[in-house]
Every structure is written in structure tokens, then in C-alpha cells.
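Sorry to interrupt, but I need a hand with the structure work. Could you write out one complete protein record for me, on any chain you like? Could you add the entry underneath, on a fresh line?
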Amino acid sequence: MEAVAGPLGKPAEVDSVREVLLVGGCYGVAGLYPLARAYKENGTQVIFLAEARGQAFLYWEDKIRPVVKEYLTVLREDCFRSGQDLEKIILSLKKQRPGLSKVVVMGCSYLLFTISEIARKTGLRSRVNLNPIMIDGTGMCGACRVTVEGKTYFACVDGPEFDGEGVDWQEYFSRRQTFLSEEEQALINLAKKIEKRK
């Protein structure tokens, strides 16, 4: 008999807050959609901010708009230059909405880090969905180890959602680069295969 288990993880936190900001980039847009629905059902006003490389990378706006109070987008060609735009948007939202107390983010590691830093500056509580390297997704291998508030967790079973302010980001980024050369080689090999098929 065949079976698949993992990543196991814990359900997202859906607490009673007046307003919440959900920030999704790449796969995070789809990942946050069920959370937006859950918050709406809980009576929370949801602001959704979708971040993408360009208009062609935005999706599901038609699904998300009906479950949120406000839908915003930020487009950037270079993700490492999006921090200032994101900070302006979040500062503006915080000024306009005194009930806004929490931000949840899902997407690339840089987006997670950037939003947690902006949240810390603006007094928002941040929850980040960490995406470290995983091998078995059941907590047995330890590859997805992260440090949050000085304690060790395994993102596949203890997460993926953690308080952004407590994450040891230096360790997190260091561990994310463990197989960087192998990942680069895999992309090169894939590009060669695609080129041969043309």
C-alpha cells in the first residue's frame, strides 16, 4: 500500500482582530486565499496586497476581491527593490486604518523578511509562512529547522506560520542557501533540455 504524509504543519492562526493585512507574492496569493475567506467569516476586515513581477504574474483577483474589503497590488521588476514601495503602502494603510494590527505574509523569503521588518517598524504584529528546504515533510530529517525567539522548530510540523519578529533571519537565509549550487545546476540542466527540444 502506498501513502504520502507531509508536510504536516499546523493550521493558520485566525484570531479576532478588527483588520488584517494579507501580503501574498507568487504562490502566496493562492495560499492566502483560504485565510482571507476564514478571516471574513470571522468578522475581520481583510486588506489583500498582491505582489508580483508584472501584471502577467497576478492571478485570482476575481476570486479574492469578493472576500476582502480592499485589494491592492504592487508590481516590481526587481524584487529586491520592492521594499520601499511596500513600506510606503503599509505605512499609508496603518495611518488610514487605526484598527489594523496584524499582517500575514506568504511568498518568497525576501518578501517574508521585508514585510516582517516593515511590520516591526510600524508596530504591526507579523506572521510569516516560512518556506525552508524540506526533505521528508514529517519532522524526521530536520532539514527545515528554524530558530524563532531563540527556540528550535521544524517548519514542516511546527509551522509554517511563525511570528516574523522572532525569526532568526540570518540563520534562515544561510540555511536556504545550503543547496544553492545544486539548484543552479538543476536549472542549467533544465534549460539545456528545453533548448534541445526546440
Observations:
- The first strand starts at residue 19 and ends at 25.
